[in-house]
């Protein structure tokens, strides 16, 4: 389907119209300058050629004048008008087409013996001629010193008559400006055609349907790059909206169970007076605690996504040793750290990652948990290893999704929310790092990677 760019916007608001008007103004100015220069050049060139011929004919006739005799004039096809006129304006000799009236009243001086002039008598066509003064020596020999003048000329060519040359060149310049403007209009329309197609498609995209993509023209020009960038943005937006919807569905599902339990306990206390109120409230508290835990972790998760955290230099070795020492449960934690493993980040958030990983490892371990902080090239590594059953390879990414809980996790921690590991990975990503489960000969091996702080 073809799209006409001009049909979408008012003429004054259209980029195509504004560009075309600007180019039209420039083209008119340039065409006017070119036309004026061309007119001057053509007029000067034609006049120079004509005056060159007339001067040659006049000079050649004066060269043939001998003592006591003036030969007949020698007109040519291009210079048919030749006359010899005395100082009183009388025609002494003339060619057959020159007539008996002087062609001009111009009298060159002895200092300037040749003058090129254009004579335009009333009600007659103009004549271009060269007025030449016979040399003083030749004048003494022939006429006892009386000045005589030779006129050699021709009718002005039609091209130079009136403003005909200017009109012809001006018409050509106007045609050039029009063609230039039309070409700009069509070229701009072709350039804007895919942009208008993109705009039309974007206007069809709504929050309920983000699957549409803008048409992407071939090539690597700016419009094609714009279309690709728009499609990439739409893809990211679609993924973000899909994740939000999934997250909202999971949140509502997770909150539904404790909320239903809490409501049931309270309704029982209201419907059955024989039930002790304190006992009913005590039985409702676990559901309220679970709701509070889920809401607190959701708030932390949302705050981490939307609010930038303050950063400071953090010694991961010191942080790991402190967190390992605080885990005084039945399962011992053995820490091994290297010196000067420093990163730039939020101490509280990084400590929460280590705490969550240690708690999770102690919950699944059989007898011992090992944690280490070390340097690996330009990265800092925190490794938490337990001696439990480990995590199946197919589940190693699922456990980092919000509210995802495997069967072993539900059995060992029935009241958990399933947000701990998702929150840990989100913190790691916010610190330009990563958190994943890697292969290990025993148990589960969680590896946190962060950029080292360079001095």
From TrEMBL:
Protein name, as recorded: histidine kinase
Organism, as annotated: Microbispora bryophytorum
Reaction catalysed by this enzyme: ATP + protein L-histidine = ADP + protein N-phospho-L-histidine
GO annotations of cellular component type: plasma membrane
Cellular location(s): Cell membrane
Upper taxonomic lineage: Bacteria, Bacillati, Actinomycetota, Actinomycetes, Streptosporangiales
Molecular function terms from GO: phosphorelay sensor kinase activity
Keywords: Kinase, Membrane, Phosphoprotein, Transferase, Transmembrane, Transmembrane helix, Two-component regulatory system
Main location: membrane
């Amino acid at each position: 389907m073809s799209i006409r760019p001009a049909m979408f916007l008012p003429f004054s608001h259209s980029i195509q119209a504004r560009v075309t008007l600007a180019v039209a103004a420039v083209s008119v100015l340039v065409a006017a300058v070119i036309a004026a220069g061309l007119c001057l050049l053509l007029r000067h060139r034609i006049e120079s050629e004509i005056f060159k011929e007339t001067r040659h004919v006049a000079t050649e006739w004066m060269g043939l004048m001998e003592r006591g005799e003036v030969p007949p004039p020698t007109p040519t096809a291009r210079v048919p008008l030749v006359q010899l006129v005395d100082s009183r304006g009388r025609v002494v000799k003339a060619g057959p087409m020159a007539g008996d009236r002087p062609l001009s009243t111009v009298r060159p001086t002895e200092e300037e013996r040749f003058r090129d002039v254009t004579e335009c008598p009333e009600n007659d066509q103009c004549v271009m001629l060269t007025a030449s003064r016979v040399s003083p020596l030749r004048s003494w020999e022939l006429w006892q010193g009386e000045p005589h003048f030779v006129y050699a000329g021709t009718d002005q060519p039609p091209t130079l008559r009136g403003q005909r040359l200017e009109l012809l060149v001006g018409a050509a310049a106007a045609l050039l400006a029009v063609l230039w403007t039309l070409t700009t209009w069509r070229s701009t329309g072709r350039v804007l055609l895919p942009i208008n197609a993109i705009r039309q498609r974007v206007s069809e995209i709504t929050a309920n349907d983000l699957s549409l993509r803008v048409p992407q023209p071939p090539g690597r020009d700016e419009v094609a790059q714009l279309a690709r960038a728009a499609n990439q943005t739409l893809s990211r937006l679609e993924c973000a909206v899909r994740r939000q919807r999934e997250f909202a569905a999971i949140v509502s599902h997770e909150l539904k169970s404790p909320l239903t339990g809490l409501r049931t306990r309270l309704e029982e206390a209201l419907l059955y007076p024989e039930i002790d109120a304190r006992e009913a409230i005590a039985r409702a508290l676990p559901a309220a605690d679970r709701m509070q835990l889920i809401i607190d972790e959701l708030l932390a998760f949302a705050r981490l996504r939307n609010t930038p955290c303050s950063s400071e230099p953090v010694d991961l070795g010191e942080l790991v040793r402190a967190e390992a020492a605080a885990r005084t449960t039945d399962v011992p934690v053995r820490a091994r750290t290297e010196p000067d493993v420093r990163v730039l980040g939020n101490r509280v958030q990084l400590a929460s990652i280590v705490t969550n990983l240690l708690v999770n490892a102690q919950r699944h371990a059989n007898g011992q948990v090992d944690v280490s902080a070390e340097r690996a090239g330009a990265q800092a590594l925190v490794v938490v290893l337990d001696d439990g059953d480990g995590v199946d390879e197919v589940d190693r990414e699922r456990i980092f999704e919000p509210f995802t809980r495997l069967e072993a996790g539900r059995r060992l921690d029935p009241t958990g929310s399933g947000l701990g590991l998702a929150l840990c990975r989100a913190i790691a990503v916010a610190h330009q790092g990563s958190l994943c489960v890697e292969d290990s000969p025993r148990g589960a091996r969680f590896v946190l990677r962060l950029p080292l702080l360079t001095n």
